[in-house]
Amino acid sequence: MEISLCKADLEDAATLHEMKIKAFMPLLEKYQDFETSPANETVERIITQLNQSFTYYYIIYYLKAAVGGIRVVKKDNQVYSVSPIFILPEHQGNGIAQKVFTMVEQIHDDARTWKLGTILQEKGNCYLYEKIGYIKTDATKVINDKMTMIFYEKHL
Hints:
Elements: E1 3-7, H1 13-31, H2 43-50, E2 55-62, E3 65-74, E4 79-87, H3 96-107, E5 113-119, H4 123-131, E6 135-144, E7 147-155
Parallel strand pairs: 4-5
Antiparallel strand pairs: 1-2, 2-3, 3-4, 5-7, 6-7
């Protein structure tokens, strides 16, 4: 599978923003989470994140085409979080995200713990994260009557 990651810079903000909207819009429409959905984030927010010294944003390429992105946030004590990962809808279900997780773990090989949050009601997402070694924590956050966030950790 020909997948690669390219570290994003400020010139990539609009591309990341456009892909993020396409990837998250179906979830926004389904769950009506207007306050928290990445589909509602501004390009300025992505620029702010790209400027953060503790943020690593990558564009995901599949067969040389940009198909998504992943933001890795370095926290204290060798803890990293993924917030978010997104794949364009037409490329979802092809094993891309699974491979990308392996790649970012190799890039950030000093990590001892990885964290992420996802939508409890999205069973496919939960299955993916559990399949690649993430364990549910006890933490949840109710966003609205349709949607609850669940949090995962992976210890290396």
